[in-house]
Amino acid sequence: MTDRPETTDTDADTSTGTDADTDAVADPVMEMVSRPHAENFIAWSASRPEVLVLSADLTNSCEVGRWRDTYPDRFITAAMAEQNMLGVAGGLAREGFVPFIHTFAVFIYRRAYDQLAMSVAYPNLKVRMLGFLPGIVTPGGVTHQAIEDVAIMRATPNMTVLETGDATEVESMLDAVEHVDGPVYIRVLRGEVPRLFPADEPLRLGRSRLLSDGGDVAVLTAGITTEEALRARRALQRAGVGVSHVHVSTHKPFGDEIIENAVSSARCGVVTLENHTVVGGLGSAVAEYMAERGIGRRLVRLGLDDTYAHGASKAYLMREHGLDSAALVTAVESLVGERLGVTDADFASARTDAVHSEAKAEAL
Amino acid sequence: MSDAPQTSEKKTPKARAGSGGSARSARSAGSTASAKKRPAAGESTKKKQTKTAGKPANKQKKDSVERIEQIAAGVRRRVFEHVLKHDGGYLSQALSAGEIFGALYGGAMRLAPCERPLRAGAFTGVPGSTNGDYRSGDRFNGEPAPELDRFLFSPAHYALVLYAALIEVGRLDESALDEFNVDGSTLEMIGAEHSPGVATTTGSLAQALSQACGIALARRMRDEPGRTWVFMSDGEFQEGQTWEALAFASFHGLSRLRAVVDANGQQCDGAMSSVGNIEPVVERIRSFGCDAVEVDGHDAAALEAAMSEEVDKPYVIVARTDPARGLEVMARRAPLLHYVRFTSADERTDFDAAFRRMLKEAPQA
After folding, report:
1. B283: which residues sit within 8 A by CB, 6+ positions away?
2. What ipTM does the predicted assembly reach?
């Protein structure tokens, strides 16, 4: 497809690339990190007495059980009362504390949006909202799946919006936003989390990561879809498609040089793949970005197609809703205008999470 | 897991000075000064206190009751005058809450005085990290201090009443109401936190009590003796968040949190009893583990007594009030009292006449 050499030097460091299967598709051995937020947050908080935790009955589920036991005086149980919790957070922040709300994402932006907007976002208060269970990572079903949070938080003035895609990003998200003088919302991964990016390459606010460079198609992913897109990398490479793969961790403020270069040099078009509805999230941000700069390329937005999901495994839902590597290849095929002859066997094997795991408080 | 770094810091954390854009400076955690000293709530109160020094207690009490009634009358007069001038407005709120504001600003709240009545100033934009010109309306409540009280204003459509009260106690410029609801002014019809006397943005209702919980909790963590007051309306007890906040305040033992409720029994659609019942609200509040008392919200002495009560629980004063207090022409509009807009020239004439009577009968300042 392209004569531009693909460089993969930015991504391959952690996948030691040792063991290929018998076929040519290497299954990179990925380091898995158990509960990356838990211990990191305890250490990070030691020198920051202004940091408080607010929890709404999901303390262990949000990996702050040990934090509570370590800093009992700084842990505030708000019970299952999120509207009040957002207001309490605003009050604490006005007094100079930095409250870190820990709960499932849906209970932050859906359950308590007016409070979030008026008691936290409008006054531009330094409240950190860590939203767990982004998108379809949970079998908890529609009530637990945050599928439009990025759209809503992006639309909220004063809000900074991040999404973590691996253990390194979970470990470095706190530093990345420490000096943001206003509210921050982060989609946080928990439990068994892969390390896709070297531990010494932390998440930096407003800076995306270029994981591969190629001139045919730009693929932009965020959160868990980055790991998924990496599964298709070698298959696309072998099919001769030059792919610029960009991992986005800052949804707002959106856009940097890496994104601009990738979308403006993609000859055949751009694909976004997000663990979110296609309305208002990464795909929309990329569309706005391209349109405002007159970058006339086709754009395929993969994600939940303006629909709710249901309770099932992550892998099942990713396939059902076209969030997986097969859907990505199909989108690339539509842009380059030819079938690439890629089959499931060409993808790096999918990692499946155990429903019950020491790393999770519940099967959610 | 067990070798996680332990912090040696086990004491109540103090907010670091300068942390957070809106942080009030850190206070000394060691300051346990008893809050016996009562700073004046305004220039004129200060004068009055000086004057009354040395008088017998019952005389001082009489003076403070007069003071409350005087503020209440001034609030009603200013709001009524404004409503007549502008052919409408939130009048019943001034009729019901006059004495409550008189009691709060007339002595119950320990606030630092304003040196002189402040000018409201033009709107300088919304809060945001790029708006260095933003100014909080809380400055009209005086410089905060650990031993002093805070005031959160919850039902923001009472803004006109609050502005009038601030003028009465010498915190807001006498002519400020000319800017009420004028484009580009901070004296908005439904105040936000840039409006005089307003510290939080609570126009959607029932949000101030939760924020007050956060403030009271932060202040307790710093061992501050000052109290956090919230002015509320009874309609806000229809919102679930109010009950979440009361449960939180009770569970966390926020004994320096105080709410005063203007229970005027009316809301936008009419009488509260016809829209959604909250009674028995005092018993309901008590059942949530808070202290609650019921007082006649037009009885200055009763309000003063209730507000000066020392309690060891979150404390709610339910002030029963009349939304047509002292204004027979208003009572005729019942049950639609929430917002006054004259329906006929005759009604307008009646209100004009009632206003003239009010001026004649008002206690002289």
Report:
1. none
2. 0.90
